[in-house]
Amino acid sequence: MDAYWFPAPEKFEKRYLATGGGGYAINSGSRSLPGGVMYGAVAGLTDGGFGSFNTQVDAVVLKANGTINWDAVFMFGYKGIGEMTQIGKGITRLFYDMQDDEKLYTYYQGCSEGGREGWSQVQRYGEEYDGVIPGAPAFRYAQQQVQHLYANVVEKTLDYYPSSCELNRILNETIAFCDPLDGKTDGVVSRSDLCKLHFNVNSTIGLPYSCAASNGGSGMGGGPGGSASPIPALNGTVSARAAAVMQLIMSGLHTTSGKRAYISYQPSAGFTDATTTYNNATGAFDLSISGLGGDFVTKFIEEININNLPSLDNVTYDTLVDWMQEAWVKYEDTLQTTLPDLTPFQSHGGKVLTFHGESDDSIPAGSSVLYHESVRKIMYPSLDFNASTAALGDWYRLFLIPGAAHCAPNTLQPNGPFPQTNLEVLIKWVEEGVKPVTLAATHLAGEEVGKDASICAWPLRPVWRGGGGNGTAMECEYDQESIDTWMYEFDAYKLPLY
Ligand SMILES: [Ca+2]
User: Fold this and answer.
1) Among 47, 295, 360, 361, which one carries the catalytic annotation?
2) In sequence order, what E strands does 365-473 have?
3) Is 348 a catalytic residue?
4) Is the pLDDT of residue 1 over 70?
5) What is the pTM of this model?
6) How many CB atoms lie within 10 A of CB 11?
7) If you measure from the C-alpha of residue 63 to the centroid of ligand 1, how many angstroms do you get, rounded to a whole number?
8) Distance from the CA of 186 to the center of ligand 1, in angstroms?
9) 187 φ/ψ sector (left φ>0, alpha ψ -120 to 50, else beta)
10) pLDDT (average), residues 445-460
11) Is 406 an annotated catalytic residue?
């Protein structure tokens, strides 16, 4: 079933907007529809055929007999939104009595899983769309979902479960050290690549931490039930073992023989996947298995209808790589969503405006860079780096948002900007040919609240020169050493990982 919102006829601007969901949801309720109507667009959402608008795919992915419900997987993968758009465009033409030769501009906007869904539309229904905004996409699904368990396996392998107090001390120190590397001391790590090059997590060993007692709460990556035991006041110094855990997490998943299987979050991103749980009985912190990763392994890979893995016993780095490999093959044509040949979309004139918080703690920012580079190489094999980047940038632009978290500003780096007008920017690009050289953003909190900002397009990186005074202007620079920190070789697999 699909639902559409229609602007009043005098407000209709010959536009259609498809919307998507987040997590395991294929829609965001009616939250994302007013944004379309605001721009004179008919806006649509779908239930994917899962039974109701509130039913998420993980509730229907297993049939009663315990096998995969492939109809649901294909609908979630790309068909649900694609068919909604085809039907929605037809209804729109009829409703407003449009002539056959009148252009109906067609857009998509979504973030996270909604970002993956956006890419699914570019890859599978390229001719249907004129402009797509896939924010912080949860694509490369097999790797993306399983990698949520990586921090837990590091903790288990090293047998050390840091408290959130100790983790936050490391994180705060990372941000403090890396903040000025971009030339502007504002509490925002606008250059996580320079952070990667110059920050050594071992420098945090011995730093004191102290946290008041709390009622527990639960990290976003908390295990089943979000086990929220009260946590006593904590005092200590950052241990070498905690630094070792963080070092390994930040280096990304490798096989036990040292071959790279995936990337990690940028330094200065939160350590949500590493969240532990306090054990009242022992007075120690314990493993808290990431529900995002566990739910995927149990239902989508092992086909067992439980919401999380009961334990990580016998789960090694190699197990994670095996799960990634298995899910990749299993869902290559549905959920993986990294098809790098975008010829139908590109030749039809489609434009992609994509963004990713550089301090995203749920989907690594490097994931969006990896796909951008894959598309660049596949679409322009005979052009060198600069020429192919320029050619791709005519219709697909990636903006890394300094300091931003997952599809949102970052409370830990509140002075950072966030884009607020992406759909307007995309409409201008599609309908008036105004290419966003930089992306318009706004400071939504902090010292510069209300001020405008500009976001550099990948591979250019922001820098403030001239002493770092807050009055100095940002430049978008080309820095090969920084760019190289975003490039990886995935030698754990025989196939290329796009
Ligand atoms: Ca800074």
Assistant:
1) 360
2) 396-401, 417-418, 439-443, 452-455, 461-464
3) no
4) yes
5) 0.96
6) 12
7) 50
8) 5
9) left
10) 95
11) yes
